[in-house]
């Protein structure tokens, strides 16, 4: 019911421009999508199990299908996304994952309403963000700066609570130098922030930060999102030297009073025409144990078809070999 309410809200925004004058004529609908399938063979040391399974994503789905529709207008528009998965647990959910409309009455102001319209800012490495369902007011007072106010409507027809239903977004784009931003919902248990530096040609320099301000609704100590006073950070660096691209990924996590854990992952990739082989080594440190893993992959794209072949080995003795195939349209 709650999703139906916000989808009707999005349709109302569509209606604003659908029946407006020629200056705000309804934009054309552009469709795109993809189908992703995969197979993985491996051995799990912990359970002493050799297996063969469908594995189209890191979530363990057997198959994923996406259909996106975008209304690309000048002063108004919208988007919807239809998602279906053949999940590893045998379920086959089909849902509208996104449905929202937007309207720009003046150059510096954008209004959005609907379901899962996303954040004004998402971190550059993981895409961490507090997505929106309800309405958003986005203001661009100066070039490069965007400030957003989010009104969360997921609670349905209940008394409005500003401390739980208001969020803030901030993004500043300094052209040819960097993009920085943060996203914080008063009702959520964490905020996200990040930076993407582009000042040096061929250099990738990115930072993600996520901090749990308070305990979440679920008491799951194993998931740091639900533990108060917890910080997670990632840094990603890469430098393109022609076809060769070395990289370095770092991560740190501090769960309340627990000891700091960290990871370091150097890697390298080489592009030769349509083919890109790559390799990595990862070392993960925790106070109770340290582990390592290594792997190699080959990626290639033919027109809109992408193939990903990979092999990974973990210090505990587990390994996997896999193939993923993505068809886009």
Q: Which percent range describes the beta-strand content?
A: over 45%
Structural class: mainly beta
Shape: globular
Mean pLDDT: 83
Helix content: under 10%
Biggest β-sheet: count, sense, barrel? Answer: 18 strands, antiparallel, barrel
Distance between the termini: 32 Å
Radius of gyration: 22 Å
Quantity of strands, as a count: 19
Question: Segments where pLDDT lies below 50 for 5+ residues?
Answer: 1-14, 16-23, 218-224
What string, H for helix and E for strand, traces the elements in order? HEEEEEEEEHEEEEEEEEEEE
Multimeric state: single chain
Task: Summarize the entry for a quick read.
By secondary structure, the chain is mainly beta. It is 6% helix and 57% strand.
What does this structure look like?
Strand 5 (94-106) and strand 6 form a beta hairpin. The chain is mainly beta. The two termini are 32 Å apart. Mean pLDDT is 83; it is low at 1-14, 16-23 and 218-224. The relative contact order is 0.12. The protein has helices at residues 2-18, 162-165; strands at 29-44, 49-54, 63-72, 76-86, 94-106, 109-115, 134-139, 145-152, 166-174, 178-185, 190-197, 203-212, 230-239, 244-255, 261-270, 275-285, 290-302, 305-314, 319-328. The chain has an 18-stranded antiparallel beta barrel. The protein has a domain at 1-101. The longest helix has 17 residues, at 2-18. It is 6% helix and 57% strand.
């Amino acid at each position: 019911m709650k999703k139906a309410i916000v989808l009707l809200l999005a349709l109302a925004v569509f209606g604003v421009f659908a029946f407006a004058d020629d200056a705000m004529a309804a934009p054309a609908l552009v469709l795109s999508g993809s189908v992703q399938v995969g197979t993985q063979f491996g051995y799990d040391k912990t359970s002493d199990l050799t297996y063969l399974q469908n594995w189209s994503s890191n979530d363990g789905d057997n198959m994923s299908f996406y259909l996106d529709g975008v209304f690309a207008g000048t002063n108004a528009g919208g988007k919807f996304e239809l998602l279906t998965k053949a999940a590893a647990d045998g379920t086959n959910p089909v849902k509208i994952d996104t449905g929202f409309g937007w309207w720009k009455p003046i150059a510096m102001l954008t209004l959005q309403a609907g379901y899962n319209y996303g954040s004004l800012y998402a971190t550059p490495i993981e895409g961490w963000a507090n997505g929106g369902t309800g309405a958003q007011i986005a203001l661009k007072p100066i070039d490069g700066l965007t400030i957003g106010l989010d009104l969360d409507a997921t609670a349905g027809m209940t008394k409005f609570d500003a401390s739980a239903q208001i969020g803030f977004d901030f993004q500043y784009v300094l052209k040819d130098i960097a993009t920085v931003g943060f996203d914080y919902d008063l009702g959520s248990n964490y905020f996200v922030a990040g930076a993407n530096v582009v000042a040096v040609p061929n250099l990738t320099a990115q930072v993600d930060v996520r901090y749990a301000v308070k305990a979440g609704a679920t008491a799951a100590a194993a998931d740091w999102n639900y533990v108060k006073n917890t910080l997670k950070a990632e840094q990603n660096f890469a430098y393109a030297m022609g076809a060769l691209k070395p990289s370095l990924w770092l991560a740190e996590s501090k769960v309340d009073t627990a000891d700091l854990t960290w990871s370091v992952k150097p890697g390298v990739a080489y592009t030769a025409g349509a083919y890109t082989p790559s390799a990595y080594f990862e070392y993960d440190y925790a106070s109770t144990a340290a582990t390592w893993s290594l792997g190699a992959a080959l990626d290639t794209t033919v027109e809109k078809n992408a193939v990903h072949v990979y092999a990974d080995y973990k210090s505990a003795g587990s390994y996997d070999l896999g193939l993923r195939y993505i068809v886009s349209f």
